[in-house]
Amino acid sequence: MSKNWRPATQLVHGGTLRSQYGETSEAIYLTQGFVYETAEAAEARFKGETEGFIYARYGSPTNDMFEKRMCMLEGAEDARATASGMAAVAAAILCQLKAGDHIVAARALFGSCRWVVETLAPKYGIECTLVDGRFLENWEKAIQKNTKLFFLESPTNPTLEVVDIAGVAKLANQISAKVVVDNVFATPLFQKPLELGAHIVVYSATKHIDGQGRCLGGVVLSDTEWVTEHLQDYFRHTGPAMSPFNAWTLLKGIETLPLRVKQQTENAAKIADFLAEQKQVAKVIYPGRADHPQADVIARQMSGGSTLVCLELKGGKEAAFALQNALGVVKISNNLGDAKSLITHPATTTHKNLSDEARAELGISPGTLRLSAGIEDTQDLLEDFARALERMPG
């Protein structure tokens, strides 16, 4: 029956485990270990002959509910919940590679994601090539004999570029490589990378899945064979496990995910349209607009726009700072996917560690701002931007 549930129902009821007390809300199992009736039972559990939990670093009932619910939403066979989004990214990449392997990654990545593939992986003998991911020919040209992994975000952070996931997956399958997609900006509601041919999907659950600024979390999703062969031992022995309390918090957040993302997306679309008409704004990029440079790809692989808007102000850093400081409803924060509208200046926050040349290559100028639309009243947000723009010098 649960397989036929639609997403909104899955996110309220999926994977629920109830104790003998029949609680309505999911229980929080704050324990690091579990007991066994007999020594023989412990032996059988460790051998995998009987089902059950062994140690919270491996899994717990609360984490298990979160993982199962995410699997239902994503259409994945198996998942592992991690302590943060970056723990999920690092685990998904490193668990399946060895010295001598090669990664092809889109150059447009969140700063920490780019650090993992460009700085950390080479320390362990794993080569990396960064490409302009918008064009499939760049992915194809970067393939080497030792290429084992393709890694991308779509839409990208912060400039909202889009990568043809199905096209990249087709190239990967030709050489028996795996495709890892960071799907945070699209959310699992608007894009299904596994259906498009990707092999592994990662999320920072800190973002839309919690969506209320309360806790960190991440999740890696794939098929059972890949999780068992590559992720399981890495996960157990390196210890990126999510706290059961955070898993419970995320279970509560995910119940309202469709409601929040719907309002956030409507707000983002209206703000993008408003900003596109303002004289101080040089450029607006939003996946829901017809003028997005890759509108054709978006139409093929996304069922909705995004909760994020990228804009560039004509006055550079001075104008970007002035706008942020003049906003009242919208808060300055480097987080995203929150119920509160948040804005940040990527060049001095999330992408500050990149060189000026690298930022320019990605389209991140001194005047670039990233807006994460919240669930506030749309008119209040539009009026907030209108007032802030009026107060800007010049």
What would your notes on this structure say?
It is a single chain. With 394 residues, the protein is α/β, with parallel strands linked by helices. It folds into 2 domains: 2-255, Aspartate Aminotransferase, domain 2; 257-391, Aspartate Aminotransferase, domain 1 (Alpha-Beta Complex), CATH 3.90.1150.10. It is built from 16 helices and 12 strands. Strands 1-7-6-5-4-2-3 form a 7-stranded mixed β-sheet, sandwiched between helices. Strands 8-9-12-11-10 form a 5-stranded mixed β-sheet. Helix 5 (111-123) links the parallel strand 2 and strand 3 (127-131). The radius of gyration is 22 Å and the shape is globular. The mean pLDDT is 96.
Mean pLDDT over all positions: 96
Annotated CATH topology of the largest domain: Aspartate Aminotransferase, domain 2
Instruction: Count every beta strand, where a strand is a DSSP E run of 2 or more residues.
Output: 12
CATH superfamily of the largest domain: Type I PLP-dependent aspartate aminotransferase-like (Major domain)
Instruction: List segments where confidence is low: pLDDT < 50 over at least 5 consecutive residues.
Output: none
- CATH architecture classification of the largest domain: 3-Layer(aba) Sandwich
**CATH class bucket of the largest domain:** Alpha Beta
Q: Ends: how far apart?
A: 61 Å
Structural class: alpha/beta
Concise synopsis of the structure shown:
With 394 residues, the protein is of the alpha/beta class. It is built from 16 helices and twelve strands.
Map the helices and strands:
Layout: H1 7-13, H2 39-47, H3 61-74, E1 78-82, H4 85-94, E2 102-106, H5 111-123, E3 127-131, H6 136-142, E4 147-153, H7 165-174, E5 178-182, H8 187-190, E6 200-204, H9 206-210, E7 218-222, H10 224-238, H11 244-255, H12 257-276, E8 281-285, H13 295-301, E9 308-313, H14 316-326, E10 331-332, E11 342-344, H15 356-362, E12 368-372, H16 378-391
Parallel strand pairs: 2-3, 2-4, 4-5, 5-6, 10-11
Antiparallel strand pairs: 1-7, 6-7, 8-9, 9-12, 11-12
